[in-house]
Specification:
single chain; 298 residues; alpha/beta; Spore Coat Polysaccharide Biosynthesis Protein SpsA, Chain A; nine-stranded mixed beta sheet; 13 helices; 9 strands
Length: 298
């Protein structure tokens, strides 16, 4: 079986062994998808290793670490109707890409399909999976699964044209919770997002990660999204909740400082979401406040 409907996009930075493992897994998929890798200025021999072991992979080398914007760069090269994002420490299960493409084919108002995330090597569900499965967001009857307010890039297949029309990932956010802003803009454009329980992505978290920096960016980006798109009342509620609940340390202080320093451009770009989309996000507030998967620790 081959399936020409989906291209897989991977971003990487200094994780050569994990990336090669992921590319090996993708090469064995029955769908035989085209794969594009954006190497975000790795210095560990990633690029020559990819060229040597996977010559069929299209390799982009922007020369600097673009973070999530490396995906935007790759999507410009995508010629298939759908794009599946994948991290260098995750990979799609056989049949999942075709299953997601089938859903997108059948439902023209659907922008994205997020798969169940299985954490390896134990084979257990990622904690966020339960929240996706039990999403409180109301959706139309035709939606093939729970409606979502956001998605996880490493476990999602998207309609490429919808991604490009919404502007892709915002360059300011770089990496860490960067999906929330794009998901809201997709919804504002009239698209729906869903979760598919029977599709699977495997994730074996890399040991080569700076969890403290990722936490800083996650807090900062949450604040930026909140101030850019939410009405004043919900924005204040979420800001106060974060201030009360994040760890009292330098990483959190840095996150709030970076977010506050950017207020001039935030106010220039602020565009409040349509009421229908805002009502969906309000449905998620209780889950966000009580989520263990979204706790800013590390």
């Amino acid at each position: 079986m081959t399936d020409p409907r989906t291209t897989v996009v991977v971003i990487t930075h200094n994780r050569r062994p994990e990336l090669l493992r992921t590319l090996d897994r993708l090469a064995r998929l029955p769908e035989r998808p085209a794969v594009i890798v954006t190497d975000n200025a790795s210095t560990d021999g990633t690029a020559p290793a990819v060229a040597r072991h996977h010559p069929d992979v299209r390799l982009l080398r922007p020369g600097r670490n673009l973070g999530a914007v490396g995906r935007n760069l790759a999507v410009r090269q995508v010629r298939t109707p759908y794009v599946a994002f994948c991290d260098d420490d995750s990979w799609w299960a056989p049949g999942a890409l075709s299953g997601a493409a089938d859903l997108l084919d059948r439902h023209p108002a659907l922008a994205s399909v997020t798969a169940r995330i299985v954490v390896e090597p134990d084979g257990t569900d990622d904690p966020i999976t339960e929240e996706l499965r039990n999403s409180p967001v109301p959706g139309p009857e035709w939606l093939p699964g729970p409606a979502l307010g956001s998605f996880l890039a490493a476990a999602t297949v998207l309609r490429a044209d919808a991604f490009r029309a919404a502007g892709g990932f915002h360059p300011r956010l770089w990496l860490g919770g960067e999906e929330e802003l794009l998901a809201a803009d997709l919804a504002a454009d009239g698209w729906w997002l869903t979760y598919a329980e029977d599709l699977t992505v495997h994730h074996q978290p890399s040991v080569a990660r700076d969890s403290t920096l990722r936490r800083t960016h996650g807090i900062r980006n949450t604040l930026w999204f909140t101030w850019l798109r939410r009405p004043v009342g919900p924005a204040l509620r979420r800001t106060v909740h974060l201030a009360r609940t994040v760890p009292r340390d330098r990483a959190s202080l840095r996150a709030f400082a970076e977010a506050t320093a950017a207020l001039p451009w935030v106010l220039r770009e602020r565009r409040v979401l349509p009421a229908a989309v805002e009502s969906r996000l309000r449905m998620l507030e209780h889950a966000q406040r009580n989520s263990t998967a979204r706790s800013y620790t590390g």
